[in-house]
Amino acid sequence: MINLLKFINENHLLKKEKPLEVKDVIEAQKELVQSGFRLLPEEFIGLLKICNGIQSGAGAILGIGPQNKALDIVSFNKTYNRSISKVILGYDDFAYLVYDFQQKKYILIDRGDGMELDDFLNDEFVSAVSSVLHFY
Amino acid sequence: MSSKKSKKDLYDEALIQSEIEAEPFLSVIYQKKGFVEKFHALDYDDQIKAYQTLVRLASVSNPNNHTRNDAYYRLEKIMPSIGLELIEKQDCFLSKDERLIIRMDFYGSIDRIQAGERKRKLSKPYLDLISKPLKKRSKMVDYDFTTAPMWPLFERFKSFRKIENDLKQYLVKNKINPKILSVMNIRDFSDLIVKTFQTDDSEMKIKFEKPVSVRKRFVMEIAERYGDQISKILQNKGYDERYVYAMIRAMQRFGATKTDKLVITETHFTDRALRELEKHKIDCKNYTTGDKIPQQLIDRLIDNKQGDLIAAYDTEGRRLYGSQFPSFEVHHKHAVSSGGNLSNIASINYKDNLCLVLTDIHMVVLHGMDIIEDNKRDAYSRRTEFIDDDVVFMAGFEKEDKIFHSYINSSAYKKHEKEDCRIYASYEQCLSKLMENQEKYFKLHETAEVAKKDFNVDEVVSKINQTYEIRHGKKPQTRRKYKNRDGLPLSFKPKRTR
Question: Long-range contacts of range B272-281, CB-CB < 8 Å, 24 or more positions apart?
Fold first, then answer.
């Protein structure tokens, strides 16, 4: 995680968001569950507590009720996600970063046909996130 | 009976009418006639809502569902009017490996392959050889990339051809066995590129294409060439002039497309801006409120992270933030996934296959109707494509919201294509050669492993000790602990022979 934060800092991606409160997280989780998804992975919530939604040169990580409404994880998934076994956590021009609840891992999938381009276990969360963040 | 029905009809019509009044985009969904014209009469946000709703309705899986078929029909009618068409074809999909190479070329960067599952994707022969340097350096010529079965897949792209020498230099410097090239898979090459271009071990994303990536170069070039036209399009759509100015400048200078980090500055001096500049001792004596802020000054302040000093505010005194405005994305007009149809795969990332589009359009319109089915025997895809292949910018649905440019007749394009076409590589052939090489490597090493197992060190040590005892009449002294090149203790050190 330290490396990821270093990368975020070096690329000035850290934003002055209001701290993410527990009730915001619960509310978002509730909304996602109501839409058929399951609870967001722990590591991802951990990141949102530091960076609630990130946009980099060509990619983005979604957040919970962030300033930039286009990055709201609940509305983004309600709009663009047609699979309830995966939740979209981020994207770039090329791929979506999703968490697959069945396989219990992070997957980078082609935006066109959903082919798995890469996969990351929970302990490789940092690599998963950085895969969709690009240089400004 | 008929009066009852007509009452119901009247009621339905009234209901629809009131819904349309509340949400104008519903006219495109409900009205039987003139829905295409209605679509074009809507403002941009409502057009997106209408399109998105139709896509959702058309995605219902039951092919006999009336609502689905109606939505599909409406989309088919709207699409040509906005310069798009739905293409359905038998397809030839690219492998995961090839897509990853296209991705690396596009972004000009590679993610570090970390410990854990991803490390397991590196081949065993590569891990073996990269961790055991030779005693002597080999020469540059010893690293013959033509012996690397998977390299032609990279070599098709100019960005990788350019770094071949850098990779060789790394291998020479680190005394890596030249045989390594023959057993390296796609991931191994990615790892080698990471090792060659990383500035430190903790770097997560390694930039190998300098100075700029394919994506960035495209954005910068479009913004440079068509800055005025883009500005006009965005301002016509009602976006604040200062956002438009800042966005285009960020595109031109950094190839930026996202707005979160975008600092929207005033374009003309305001009282507030002059006050702030003065407070920070930035010379602005020659300027008064209303003067145009020189471009150089804006750029300098942005570079020095002082853009906030001249930040733009609305009439009610609220600051304008980039995140309030739309971002852009780069769309591949010919799908990366369907690249298997192309004779020159590198052309996927050519400028003529790229288009700078608003994020909404990219997500909802250009990828909204994608369907790809690949059951190994038949591969089928449906995708939204431009009728005019020369679209390079799209910020709306009308013709005046688009910019057209043709690259294919330029000499630079032809030269680039000619160079790329020289290298032919078939993924299957490359992979089969790699398998063959790795098998040979394993056979050789399996033999070595067996030989090592047969050679029982303890047995040999015990025999040597027995001989020593017989010769000297006493047990040998405690042996010193020697370490092998991997830092592991050796059981014994053979006696030096004269």
Answer: B272/B313, B273/B309, B273/B310, B276/B309, B276/B310, B277/B309, B277/B310, B280/B306, B280/B309
SS3 of residue B394 by DSSP: strand
Could you tell me if residue B264 is inside a domain? no
Choosing among A93, A120, A126, A133, which should be mutated to test the B contact, i.e. which has the most B CBs within 10 A?
Answer: A93
Indicate the pLDDT class of residue B171, thresholds 50, 70 and 90.
very high
Q: Is residue B267 part of a domain?
A: no
Domain limits for position B291: 274-311
Residue B326 domain-assigned (yes or no): no
What is residue A26's DSSP assignment?
A: H
B99-122 pLDDT, tens per residue? 999 999 999 999 887 655 566 688
Distance from CA of A75 to the nearest CA of B (A): 13
Q: Which chain A residues are within 8 Å of B329, Cβ to Cβ? A: 58, 93
Residues in chain B within 8 Å Cβ distance of A126: 114, 204
Number of domains in chain B: 3
Structural domain includes residue B304? yes
Locate the chain A residue with the closest alpha carbon to B354: A93
The Cα A52–Cα A68 span in angstroms is 10
Closest chain B residue to the Cα of A134, Cα to Cα:
B107
Which residue out of A91, A94, A130 would a mutagenesis test of the B interface target, given it has the greatest number of B Cβ atoms within 10 Å?
Answer: A94
More confident position, B56 or A12: B56
| Domain end point (choices B66, B81, B96) | B81
For B135-154, what is each residue's pLDDT tens digit?
A: 999 999 999 999 999 999 99
Write out chain A residues lying below 8 Å of B338, CB-based: 112
Give the SS3 label for residue B181: helix
pLDDT band at B202 (very low <50, low <70, confident <90, very high): confident
| A79 vs B contacts (CB less than 8 Å) | 52, 363
Domains and CATH numbers, chain A: 2-130 (3.40.1580.10)
Closest partner CB to A112 (pick from B111, B118, B370): B370
Look at A118 and B100 and tell me if their CB atoms are within 8 Å.
yes
Q: Taking all residues of chain A, what is their mean pLDDT, rounded to a whole number?
A: 83
Burial class for B6, CB neighbours closer than 10 Å (0-12, 13-18, 19+): exposed
> What is the distance of C-alpha B371 from the center of its chain?
21
Distance from CA of A29 to the nearest CA of B (A): 24
**pLDDT at residue B488 in the model:** 41
Q: Which of A57-61, B29-33, B74-78, B480-484 has the highest mean pLDDT?
A: B74-78
Over 70: is that where the pLDDT of B403 sits?
Answer: yes
Q: Give the number of other CB atoms < 10 A from CB of residue B400.
A: 11
The token duo for B491 is: 């059981």
Q: Rounded CA gap, B153 and B415, in Å?
A: 20
Instruction: Read off the pLDDT of residues B312-371 as tens digits, 9 standing for 90 and up.
Output: 999 999 999 988 999 999 999 988 887 877 888 999 999 999 999 999 899 889 988 776
Q: Which residues of B touch A5 (CB under 8 A)?
A: none
CB contact (8 A) between residue A117 and residue B100 = yes
Domain-ending residue, one of B253, B283, B311: B311
